[in-house]
């Protein structure tokens, strides 16, 4: 993306195999890249802040994922009352 060689070496790398679910990691990384690009553009497309943009994007995406999982996990399931079949 926009990372220098030094920034790429400094950034911890976790392969999709280490996390399991490679497709999910690909989607997450795609979202982070897109967010980092948005941040870069918003700040005037200046060089030298690639790592900062990447790390901020990671934090923002992680917060969104936590909010999404909290919303999904906090809603109680509503089940329709069971009905006995009439004969």
Keywords:
single chain, 87 residues, mainly alpha, 4 helices
Outline of this structure?
With 87 residues, the chain is an all-alpha fold.
Structure description:
- It contains four helices and no strands.
- The N and C termini lie far apart (66 Å).
- By secondary structure, the chain is mainly alpha-helical.
- Helix 3 (22-42) packs across helix 4 (50-74).
- The chain has one domain (5-71).
- The protein has helices at residues 5-10, 16-19, 22-42, 50-74.
Q: Helices and strands in order, then pairings?
A:
Layout: H1 5-10, H2 16-19, H3 22-42, H4 50-74
In helices, the fraction of residues equals: 55-70%
* Count of helical regions: 4
Biggest beta sheet summary = none
Mean pLDDT: 75
Give the class from helix and strand content and strand pairing: mainly alpha
Strand content: under 5%
Order of helices and strands: HHHH
């Amino acid at each position: 993306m926009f990372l220098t060689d030094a920034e790429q070496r400094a950034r911890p790398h976790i392969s999709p195999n280490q996390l399991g679910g490679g497709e999910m990691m690909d989607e997450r990384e795609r979202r982070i890249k897109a967010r980092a690009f948005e941040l870069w553009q918003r700040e005037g497309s200046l060089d030298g802040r690639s790592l900062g943009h990447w790390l901020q994007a990671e934090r923002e995406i992680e917060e969104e994922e936590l909010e999404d999982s909290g919303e999904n996990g906090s809603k109680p399931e509503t089940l329709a009352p069971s009905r006995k079949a009439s004969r």
